[in-house]
């Protein structure tokens, strides 16, 4: 792949809270059109890494290159501009409870663009249609299911046609069928909208089904110990920590997880 196919290049990143180092020596390239999984056991620093990539946590060393730009060397204003190319789905979906689903999806367009209200309304319909939620436009978040909230959160995350979508535990709290539907939707977002996706997830079936690249963070050494797609790591990696993590899934009866 050429350099133009690398959307983000993470170079020798160190993430800390005060004196406590969470991860160091984190390096990887995020390739255009990929679904990149950040993997590892509880507390290894997956969300912390995600936060550093979306501008919520400044790394203590290393670089995150977005295109040719060193993200954290930019002014806050410039980082905000770069963030317009990012869409984020937080674990809780983070919908505003006092706004309808439609108003939630409209919010980024109202705050960050000068589009007229009619255009915003049409775009909200379009985005909600994309995630199969057009019927829920006037409902409040409290009136819809967890899976629907995730889909509404996705509609809001794609409101500004992002180049990169960051998904923090998108299937957390969902039943297996709803979770599989969300996997299909994520694949549609990648294939239909051409988005590149970074996903933090504990859900191995979901990772095997959709992710084609990734990194495995180790909580003991505080470093990445493996790179590759979840399927490749499951089938070929011999590092004991990775094998133990993947084995949780391998103990289950085999299913066809080769989609994507
Ligand atoms: N604001 C903070 N201040 C201090 N320590 C923090 C802070 N946020 C997270 N941590 C610590 O950083 C480590 C990594 O946390 P993080 O949430 O990134 O892990 P994770 O891999 O996403 O975990 P999980 O899979 O359980 O969600 C943990 O030890 C956590 O306690």
Q: How many strand segments?
A: 10
Averaged pLDDT: 87
Give the radius of gyration.
18 Å
Structural class: alpha/beta
Biggest β-sheet strands, sense, barrel: 6 strands, mixed
- The CATH class name reads Alpha Beta
Fill in the CATH topology.
Rossmann fold
How many distinct helices? 9
Shape: globular
Domain count, please report it.
Answer: 1
Considering DSSP H and I runs of 4 or more, what fraction of the residues is helical? 25-40%
Question: N-to-C SSE series?
Answer: EEEHEEHEHHHEHEHEEHH
Termini separation comes to 19 Å
What is the CATH superfamily classification?
P-loop containing nucleotide triphosphate hydrolases
Low-confidence stretches: 250-260
Give the ligands present: adenosine-5'-triphosphate
Strand content: 15-25%
Strand order within the widest sheet? 6-7-8-3-9-10
Q: Give the name of the CATH architecture.
A: 3-Layer(aba) Sandwich
């Amino acid at each position: 792949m050429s350099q133009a196919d690398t959307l983000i290049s993470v170079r020798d990143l160190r993430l800390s809270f005060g004196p406590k180092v969470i991860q160091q020596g984190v390096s990887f390239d995020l390739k255009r059109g990929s679904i990149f999984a950040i993997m590892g056991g509880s507390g290894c620093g997956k969300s912390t890494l995600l936060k550093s990539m979306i501008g919520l946590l400044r790394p203590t060393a290393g670089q995150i290159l977005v295109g040719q730009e060193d993200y954290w060397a930019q002014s806050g204003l410039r980082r905000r501009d770069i963030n317009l190319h990012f869409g984020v789905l937080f674990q809780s979906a983070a919908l505003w409870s006092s706004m309808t689903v439609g108003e939630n999806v409209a919010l980024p367009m109202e705050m960050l663009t000068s589009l007229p209200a009619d255009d915003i309304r049409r775009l909200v319909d379009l985005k909600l249609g994309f995630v199969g939620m057009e019927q829920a436009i006037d409902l409040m978040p409290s009136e819809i299911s967890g899976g629907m909230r995730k889909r509404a959160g996705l509609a809001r995350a794609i409101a500004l046609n992002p180049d990169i979508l960051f998904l923090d535990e998108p299937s957390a709290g969902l039943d297996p069928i709803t979770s599989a539907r969300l996997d299909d939707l994520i694949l549609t977002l990648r294939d239909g909208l051409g988005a590149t996706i970074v996903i933090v997830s504990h859900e191995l079936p979901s990772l095997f089904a959709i992710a084609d690249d990734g990194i495995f963070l180790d909580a003991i050494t505080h470093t990445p110990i493996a790179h590759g797609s979840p399927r490749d790591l499951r089938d070929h990696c011999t590092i004991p920590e990775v094998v133990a993590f993947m084995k949780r899934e391998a103990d289950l009866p085999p299913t066809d997880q080769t989609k994507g």
